UniProtKB/TrEMBL annotation:
Pathway: One-carbon metabolism; tetrahydrofolate interconversion. This is Bifunctional protein FolD. The lineage of its organism: Bacteria, Pseudomonadati, Pseudomonadota, Alphaproteobacteria, Rhodobacterales. Residues 139-279 form the Tetrahydrofolate dehydrogenase/cyclohydrolase NAD(P)-binding domain. One of its GO terms (molecular function) is methylenetetrahydrofolate dehydrogenase (NADP+) activity. It comes from the Bacteria. Its EC number is 1.5.1.5, 3.5.4.9. Coiled coil: none annotated. It comes from Paracoccus tibetensis.
Length: 291
C-alpha cells in the first residue's frame, strides 16, 4: 500500500482564496483587517516565516504591519510595543514570532497581548477557553491539522488518536481540538512507555516532537492518517518527525514535509485575523474558519 499524500499546500491555497473573498466583503463595509507581526532578533528561519506572513497577509487584502527589533531589545521595550499595538484600532491581530531571545520571558510577552488580538491563540486565556469548550482563538498549527483531518476523514468522533508531543503550542491544543471533535485522545511524550505499541493503535497519529525521523514505519497502524508537524533542518534538507518513505507503505494518508502542515499554519493565521476583525466589529464569525 502507498498512502495518499495530503496536499497541505493546495488546501492552504484554497483557504487563503476563501479568506480573500471574505476580506473583499468586509472591505465593502469599510473594514480592512490588520495583522501586526513582531520579530525580535535575526533567526534565519523566523525571517523566512515573517516574510511569508507579511506577503500572504497583503495577498488576501489585509494590512500587514511588521515590527523588527534587535536581538538585545529589553523585554520592557517589547512589552511597550505590544501595549501600543493592543490600543491601535487598525490592528486586529498581533503575533510575536517565536522563539524569542533567551533573555525574554516568553509567557510574560504572550500574555501581554490582548486576548482578542492573540491570533496565535497562545495567551493563557485562549488556552483556558479552548480547554473548557468556550469560544477561543485557536493556535494555527493545530487548527490547520484539524482542518486537514476533517477534510480527509469527515467526522472524527470515536477515532483513536495519538498525539506525540505535549507543547503548549502544538501538542496540548491539538489534543483539545481532537477531544472537542469527540476523538479518543492519548497524549504521548518522552516518558511514555512502549510508544511504538501505542502508536500502532492510532487511527490518527500526530507527530510533534521536533526530532527527524523519530516515528518509524512499523509504528504506523495500517491505513492510519499520519500528520507530521515536524520541521527539522538537516544536512539533507527539510524533514519531518516521521520516516516518510517507510510510513507511506503502511499509512492510508500522510502529510509531507515540506508541503503538509506548514502552509496551513500561515493560512490559519490569516483565518484567525479575519475572525478577530469580524468579532471586533460585532459581525458573526466567518463560516467554517472557527470551531
Ligand atoms: N508566533 C509563532 N511562532 C512560531 C509559530 C507560530 O505558529 N507562531 N510556528 C512556527 C513557525 N511557523 C510560523 O510561525 C511556520 C513554520 C513553517 C511554515 C511552513 O510553511 N513551512 C514550509 C517549509 C518552509 C521552509 O522552507 O522553511 C512547509 O512545511 O512546507 C510556516 C510557518 C515556530 N514559530
Amino acid at each position: 500500500m502507498s498512502a495518499e499524500i495530503i496536499d497541505g499546500k493546495a488546501s492552504a491555497a484554497r483557504l487563503r482564496a476563501r479568506i480573500a473573498e471574505d476580506v473583499r466583503a468586509l472591505a465593502a463595509r469599510g473594514i480592512t483587517p490588520g495583522l501586526a507581526v513582531v520579530l525580535v532578533g535575526e533567526d534565519p528561519a523566523s525571517e523566512v516565516y515573517v516574510r511569508s506572513k507579511g506577503r500572504m497577509t497583503r495577498e488576501v487584502g489585509m494590512t500587514s504591519f511588521e515590527h523588527r527589533l534587535p536581538a538585545d531589545t529589553p523585554e520592557d521595550a517589547l512589552l511597550a510595543l505590544i501595549a501600543q499595538l493592543n490600543a491601535d484600532p487598525a490592528v486586529n491581530g498581533i503575533l510575536v514570532q517565536l522563539p524569542l531571545p533567551r533573555h525574554m520571558d516568553e509567557a510574560a510577552v504572550i500574555n501581554a497581548i490582548a486576548p482578542e488580538k492573540d491570533v496565535d491563540g497562545f495567551h493563557v486565556i485562549n488556552a483556558g477557553r479552548l480547554a473548557t469548550g468556550q469560544t477561543a482563538m485557536v493556535p494555527c498549527t493545530p487548527l490547520g491539522c484539524l482542518m486537514l483531518l476533517r477534510d480527509r476523514l469527515g467526522p472524527l468522533a470515536g477515532k483513536r488518536a495519538v498525539v506525540i508531543g505535549r507543547s503548549n503550542i502544538v501538542g496540548k491544543p491539538m489534543a483539545q481540538l481532537l477531544l472537542r471533535d469527540s476523538a479518543t485522545v492519548t497524549i504521548a511524550h518522552s516518558r511514555t512507555a512502549d510508544l511504538p505499541a501505542l502508536c500502532r493503535e492510532a487511527e490518527i497519529l500526530i507527530a510533534a516532537v521536533g526530532r527527524p525521523f523519530f516515528v518509524q514505519g512499523d509504528w504506523i497502524r495500517p491505513g492510519a492518517t499520519v500528520i507530521d508537524v515536524g520541521i527539522n533542518r538537516t544536512e539533507d534538507g527539510l524533514v519531518g518527525d516521521v520516516d516518510f518513505v517507510a510510513a507511506r507503505q503502511r499509512a492510508g494518508a500522510i502529510t509531507p514535509v515540506p508541503g503538509g502542515v506548514g502552509p496551513m499554519t500561515i493560512a490559519c493565521l490569516l483565518a484567525n485575523t479575519l475572525t478577530a476583525a469580524a468579532r471586533t466589529h460585532g459581525l458573526p464569525d466567518p463560516e467554517g474558519l472557527t470551531l
